[in-house]
Amino acid sequence: VDKDGTRVFDLRMQSGHKEFNKGRRTPTWGFNGDYLGPTLRAERGEKVKVRIANRLKEASTVHWHGMHLPARMDGGPHQMVEPGDTWSPRWKIDQPASTLWYHPHPHGATEKHVQRGLAGMFLVDDKPSSGLELPKKYGVDDVPVIVQDVKFDGADFDHGHGFMQSTGFLGDRTMVNGTMKPYQEVGDELVRLRLLNASTARIYDFGLSDDREFALVGTDGGLLESPARMNRIQLSPGERAEIVVRMKPGEKTVLRSYSHDTYGDAWQQRFSGGDDSFDILQLRAADKLRPSPEIPGELGELEVPHGKDSARERFFELRTSGINGRAMDMSRVDETVTRGTTETWTVRNEDGVPHNFHVHDVQFRVLEVNGRRPPAELRGAKDTVFVPGGTTVKLAMRFDGPADPDTPYMYHCHLLFHEDGGMMGQFVVV
Ligand code: C2O
Ligand code: CU
Ligand code: CU
Questions:
Q1: What is the residue-level pLDDT of the chain in tens, covering all 430 positions?
Q2: What are the Plastocyanin-like domain coordinates in residue numbering (predicted)?
Q3: Between the chain's N and C termini, which has fewer beta carbons within 10 Å?
Q4: Nearest atom in ligand 1 to 101's CA
Q5: What is the number of the ligand closest to the CA of 410?
Q6: Residue 350: CATH number of its domain
Q7: Do 247 and 367 reside in the same domain of the chain?
């Protein structure tokens, strides 16, 4: 914390090596280390500043995924940091407690930069008026779970994919927080897992190995109004979920990703990874567990709009070739929104290839999925939503940041191969 009370973080983008498999040093990238980056954490109302140094041989950016902040600080493709340069964005945290993350966003190369290891979590805390009783001992009963799929070719990462894999790279194994075959020792009756799908294309359908129920307490942008019990939660790239799992003394259970059928036809199902299943993280409970307080029945109030006062409706047609028939152009502003207004965005997947949709700066409410009320896992604050083939989602979001007609924010498919290929557009707030 510096003199004027600003919380200051240092992030160094660097190359390195990591031994994922014994005896094999894999070339990697990371923030302040060989792979991934530190968890940053700040409180609502706090001013933050991040001093970013690019020690790589390539230009990159650092984007704050899910963060409400001025466009100039967003770290999108217009805020490139050249090799040897520094960039120090600053902003005031002005949103509810949530599990956000950061990753590079260089236009056309985001997939590559994330795959090499540039990603980390950014946790926002809020005054604990509610949600007070949720597990919150970081790394003990409140655990970050960054899930990535990988493949190796000897010591090196193999990032290749065939033309049939229309969603991009799919690995043949997964890791958590950069660790292969991971396990977590649990000493409390309840453990909160902050799941982040930091994979570039893979969609996970998380559940526990004995199919027990867990409580979903938070989504991308914060806590739900009340916990939702379920035994599966699907996350597409970029999405987060906070779940609370009840453990029994001495037991072992595994967080898995199950095969799932959400892609439309059998072809997409197979080549988009729907048939695959993985053991993600083993949970090992101690023989004696510390008692945890019950999960509160009410968690807080959602701060996303209902959409009834929407000033404007917009339509977005998703195809691999581009959004609304246009591939991303850095010099074209696609949408201009008015500061202080709520809008309804209707997003439709028109080409059968699985996509998702992410909007910078805002958290939105999913009003409808194919004309119906969304399922429990889509009733919280979201910044990224899965849009399988033939699906239409209707979203309500409010633009209340500062106006900046010269600096655009992005909206895009977060399957990074698609994003890099042009499934991205730009909007300004005026
Ligand atoms: Cu997670 Cu535009 O990004
Ligand atoms: Cu983002
Ligand atoms: Cu896509």
A1: 888 899 999 999 999 999 998 889 999 999 999 999 999 999 999 999 999 999 999 999 999 999 999 999 999 999 999 999 999 999 999 999 999 999 999 999 999 999 999 999 999 999 765 546 899 999 999 999 999 999 999 999 999 998 888 999 999 999 999 999 999 999 999 999 999 999 999 999 999 999 999 999 999 999 999 999 999 999 999 999 999 999 999 999 999 999 998 887 888 888 899 999 999 999 999 999 999 999 999 998 999 999 999 999 999 999 999 999 999 999 999 999 999 999 999 999 999 899 999 999 999 999 999 999 999 999 999 999 999 999 999 999 999 999 999 999 999 999 999 999 999 999 999 9
A2: 14-128, 315-430
A3: N
A4: 1
A5: 1
A6: 2.60.40.420
A7: no
Domain of residue 157: give its range. Answer: 142-290
What's the chain's length in residues?
Answer: 430
One domain for residues 350 and 418: yes
Q: Which ligand is nearest to the CA of 238?
A: 1
Closest Cα to atom 1 of ligand 1: 65
Residue 286 Cα, ligand 1 centroid: separation in angstroms?
A: 38
Q: Indicate whether 243 and 114 sit together in one domain.
A: no
CA of 170 to the centre of ligand 3 (A): 14
CA of 386 to the centre of ligand 1 (A): 14
- Which atom of ligand 1 has the smallest separation from the CA of 419? 2
Q: Which residues line ligand 1 (CB under 6 A)?
A: 63, 65, 103, 105, 238, 358, 360, 410, 412, 414
pTM value surpassing 0.90:
yes
Cβ atoms of residues 116 and 158 within 8 Å: no
Do 270 and 340 lie in a common domain?
Answer: no
Q: Please name the residue whose Cα sits nearest to atom 3 of ligand 1.
A: 65
Sole residue written with tokens 């035994």:
231
Distance from the alpha carbon of residue 114 to the mean position of ligand 3, in angstroms: 16
